[in-house]
Amino acid sequence: MQCKWCQSEQAVESLEPAYWELPDGTRAVEIQKVPSIKCPDCQIVYIEEDQIEKIETQFMLIDTKKLGAKFTFKELMEQPTLLKKNYFAVKE
């Protein structure tokens, strides 16, 4: 896999922690085991855009008050949704 930052071909998929501010700005949370890309050459770890969109959308669809300060990506994605879709998403 190619690193988007240094173009190394050594980048690999990994599960990494990420820190996120909730959409309402009330607090930040730690999401564990987020599908990410890790590059051993430039030492960067990043989350691809499609995963970021999934996380952001899920936060808009669930009751974030029921979340603790730390949870896994899987636990986040398994939360029951209050809305069918993110009506606030801007589509081009």
Number of DSSP strand runs: 4
Topology order in helix (H) and strand (E) letters: EEEHEH
Give the helix/strand class: alpha+beta
Largest sheet: 4 strands, mixed
Report the helical percentage: 10-25%
Instruction: Count the DSSP helices.
Output: 2
Please mark out the parts with pLDDT under 50 across 5 or more consecutive residues, or reply none.
none
**Shape estimate:** elongated
The radius of gyration computed from the alpha-carbon positions, rounded to a whole number of angstroms, is 15 Å
| Overall pLDDT confidence | 93
Q: In percent, how much strand structure appears in the residues?
A: 25-35%
Instruction: Describe the oligomeric state of these chains in a short phrase.
Output: single chain
Distance N to C terminus: 28 Å
